[in-house]
Amino acid sequence: QLQVAESGGGLVQAGGSLRLSCEISGSILEYYFIRWFRQAPGKERELVALATSGRMTMYGAFVKDRFHISRDNARNTVSLEMNDLTPEDTAVYYCNADDTWGQGTQVIVSS
Q: Whole-angstrom Cα distance, residue 20 to residue 17?
């Protein structure tokens, strides 16, 4: 059974960086289309980035070249490198693989 687990969230000051990880278990990462979403309090969940099994990537408009998604199929892990963070990036970040969701990891950016 496919399972997804996020890690790497935390508290960071504005302008700082975080690296989130999404680990896939119960299956093989290379089969899956991976998406990172986020949800801030009182807001709808929005797409942050995606990486296809063919290694194509796309980002939400708000990312503005600050984030980078990458796949490590050997480790069954997808990473989201986030740079130049702002308080507006504060949210719970979720990984999604084939409509399977993780529990999310909290990111808090202080001003």
A: 10
| pLDDT of amino acid 98 | 87
Q: What is the average pLDDT across 76-105?
A: 96
Please tell me the predicted confidence (pLDDT) of residue 53.
85
- Residue partners of 48: CB distance under 8 A and separation at least 6: 35, 36, 37, 38, 59, 60, 63, 67, 80, 93
Which CA distances in Å does 109 have to 3, 16, 83, 92? Answer: 28, 8, 11, 11
Taking the chain, what is the end-to-end CA distance rounded to the nearest angstrom? 41
**pLDDT tens digit string along 17-27?**
999 999 999 88
